[in-house]
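Good morning C.,

I know you're traveling, so I'll keep this short. The sequence:
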Amino acid sequence: MRVDFTMVLRALLVCALIAPFADCEENVFSYRTDALYRVDPKLISHVECASWHASVPLPAFLAVRPDGGTVVVAGGRMGAILDTNGAVQSRFDWEGPVATAVAAAPDGQIFVGAGNRVMAGIPSKPLRSWALPEKDALITGIAADSNQVWVCDFTSRMVWRFDFEGLELGQLPPPGAPREEAFIVPSPSFAVATANDGTFWVVNTGRCELQRRAADGHLLEKWTRPGMTTPGFCGCCNPAFLALMPNGDLVTSEKHIPRVKIYGPDGAFRSVVAPPALLSGDDGRPVAVDRSGRVLVLDGKSIRRFACKPEKSP
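The tokens, ready to paste straight into the viewer:
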């Protein structure tokens, strides 16, 4: 192999000339995301007012019971009912798959998504269960009103409707629906939440889209808010979790840039409940809303409660 010593000497000379300046100039091609994590303090509407231990070994999902505002937390094969101050009222468990979602109905029943099964019932009694039509289903979202349960399945990208005994009432999209009605779900973030008026909200994460559906499943309205700035949903799979305020506003929780925010039903950005600086890690945080409109966030093994900042006197 013949070496061109002239070229080698030229390369060494160039390196020698630029070395003193290597640490002096900013790398304009560096990948910086710091600005995406910063939130204007003027946009933050809430302040943390309480925090308590989730009281189960592997807390992963959160709900509030409409009957009295008590909190349901589930993870692994165990769940707990906590009062509004975090004290344990009761515990429940089950055999089979671990929890992948949890919801509470107005009559006090608990619904736990566990892999491809729904576990249902009153926590003081053994839970009944039923399987989804998709054999390899993975439930990632569940919500209930007074007489039906909505279940999001990541595997089939379907939303199933059942009565409280597991009788199938319908599916979204319905059989034969056009392709544009399909849910785009690139990762296991597929949430649903119920509103006080009997309607449901479903997240179409691949489009950063939220859909309001009637009790029978037909579409009432939808909006999308993709974007890297604070008012938008970043990435391909957000929001990861969803809850409803008593006034109909939506509480969203994002992953990757973890933040909890509030939107109007029409998609208007309202405010930030918890910015990334207040949350640990980059995973989405399960959220719920109590009867007073305070936002509950499951952050690691703690349940944190956020209330609106008090208004300043003029």
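Safe travels,
E.
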